[in-house]
Amino acid sequence: MPVGLFRVCLLVITAIVNHPLLFPKENGTVPENTEEIIQKMKEREESLRLEQLRLEREIADQEATQKALEKAAVVVEESKEQKVRWDMWTALSMVIFLLIELWRQDFQEGNWQDTGGEEDDMAVLGKAFKGVAFPDKAVLASFYEKRILGTTADMARMREMVEGFADDLLEALRSVCNRDADMEVEDCMGVGSMYENWRVRKPFVCDLIVPFAPPEPYCFCCQTWCSGDSFPPDEQGYGTIKVCRAGEDATGCICDKTKLGEDMLCLLHSQVSSTRPSSEMEDLLCFKNTQYLDADQVMKWFQIAVTKAWNRISHKYEFDLSFSLLDSPGALKIKFKSGKSIAFNLTPVVQYENSDVYFISHFPRSSLAADIPSSTHWFLTFAVYERRFIQLVSKTLPANACHVSCLQILSFLHGKQCSLTGPSGLTNYHLKTVLLHLLQARPSQDWAPDKLEARLQDMLKFLEKCLHEKKLYHFFIGNGKIPAELGFPIIFQRAEPLNLFRPFVLRRDIYRKMVDTFHEMLRNMSALINEYTVHIPLAHANGIRKEAL
Known about the structure:
alpha+beta; 10 strands; protein kinase inhibitor activity; Mab-21_HhH/H2TH-like
């Protein structure tokens, strides 16, 4: 009871103490502070609203950034897919392009030299043939009988005489050379127009090539432009010859693998060696401080050797022998006491592996290798295979075929024109190349004797086309249709075709001269032929033609 009363009293006291009327002064400012508090609350509310807007903007910016990143990722992904698709299309396009290019090359190799039938040939005729009076069959038959056959009858006797003397001269050359140190000379071979029976212009000159090899224990390591080594475009058709020891890698140095004698000198390191080169090493005829065979050194050695050989056997003959041309080191001339003379070329060559392709040091009377890069670059000649191909094809042609007659007539006309207007870049080798392509392209029956006029026109049309396109491809290089009977090296068949007119592409003056000479020859053709033609009745002319061929 007392506790309860105490609690009631305490509650009453507390209520009285906390009543607002008991503290009038302290609570008198409440109404004044309310407006200030409300103002602060509004300011606070405004600041919170601004903060909220800022946060919303930041959130919106972040969302936009996120969307942009996601969009960029999608674009990157799409670009990757597009790139993959583009790469696939690019690769597919390249494959299609390569297939088209391969097909074009195969088509070109098989058909570019094909002039088709006689009706198709008329479409090939260019402006140069318009207005040209072409000789008929009777005139051509009379011209061939009078001018060609009349001047080539004694070629066989001349070839026999030159070959016999050359064999005797080379035998004497072997006797004056040191068999242990000098180059080993093999038997000579006849090549070119005299041995293919189409040379018509005098003086008749026999071209003989003489293979040679180094003394033991050395050998020649040959490298061509198509053997995988890097050769610039202007060196196509050339190769180099490295002198190595037997069994040595062509890329190595013999001094690294073999202990040289005290009197021996490494060809590559002669400048740093204290020993002097021996005469045996000098006889290897390499370019200074290299192992590469020097064509100029070879020709100097060959001239000296030929001079010594002639001095040994000169008492056996009743004529004199001399070098006839300074720019052709192998050009020789036999002078008889009667005043007559016989010229022939004896040119040293190096055999390419086990084939009948040869590296030739100099081309006599030819512009084929006029701009040799250096004396260590040797031009490759396919003359032996050219002669064999003509012989092989001749066996399949009709009797008295007109293929040789076409080349003889065209060679005569070209020579006559050059004597009137001066020499040009066009050579007899270009004319022979045209014939080789036509022999491969046309069927055998097209070369019958009565087709002489048509085939001669074919050669002129084909030559005009090549001059217009500035493209006359080497017959053997890049030609995959060479008969297997020839045994021609496959490496040259698989090589890129070699354009014989490529040197004239950049030399416009020579090209212009060559084209002008061709056009002048066409215009003067009838006059040149009629000059040497006896006009006879047509029937009798045909009879002469058959007998002559």
